[in-house]
Amino acid sequence: MTTLTTQPGTAVAHRLDEAVHLLPQTDQLRALHTIVRDRDARREDFVFYTGRIIRMLTEAALNLLPFEPHDVTTPVGRTYRGLRFADKLVGVPIVRAGESMEAELRAVVPGIRIGKILIQRDRTTKLPSLYYTAFPEDIATRQVLLLDPMLATGGTALAAIGTLLELGVPEQNIVFVTFITCPEGITAVRERHPGVRIVTSAIEERLNENAYMLPGIGDFGDRYFGTDLPRTP
């Protein structure tokens, strides 16, 4: 199903399809975004309130995964016809910023396997380079939650997705979970990998000439881990 949605505060309409899942733009979510987008927000507030949104994203992403019937017996001896995850899961944060999303995933799915992938983008050319990977041996048989808080040009996401595909992970088994994105990033991923689903809490207006999203949130990793702070002697 195709949906039309407008980012709060803009007149830009973005065309979403069934593979792009935007969290409901509730007043609560907008209030949380207002806190974390403030350039004067304290780091502890940024970490806490982005964590709340990441938990929402995690729950939404899990809801996209396949389930199978699973019956249990209740304390009163009756049968509850329930569900359980049909396939094994793995979370794959894109180091370093993606690691900001790992704790919330672990809190929702205790014991989940965690892979790692390190892709760095050249600040001048904006091109990504793959430096490191660590995955479960059976990753090709797992449902993958690929974690990165920002999907801007799509270069890093495409490099990470390409790495997973080379290991045998089907596109339809990948859910890309991102805090914030923009039309350019969505288009880049959807055109190359239409089977990959995207879950996000916000779609920005556009990229500027320096590939920063507008109105934006700044460098998520720096703000989350505190590396944007002035150096002390």
TrEMBL record:
Gene3D superfamilies noted in UniProt: 3.40.50.2020
InterPro entries linked to this entry: PRTase-like (IPR029057), PRTase_dom (IPR000836)
Ranges where the Phosphoribosyltransferase domain occurs: 24-227
Pathway(s) per entry: Pyrimidine metabolism; UMP biosynthesis via salvage pathway; UMP from uracil: step 1/1
E.C. number(s) listed in UniProt: 2.4.2.9
Cofactor(s) for this UniProt protein: Mg(2+)
GO molecular function, one term: GTP binding
Keywords annotated in UniProt: Allosteric enzyme, Glycosyltransferase, GTP-binding, Nucleotide-binding, Transferase
Alphabetical list of Pfam families matching this protein: UPRTase (PF14681)
Family: Belongs to the UPRTase family.
Protein name as it appears in the record: uracil phosphoribosyltransferase
Organism of provenance: Streptomyces roseirectus
Protein's gene: upp
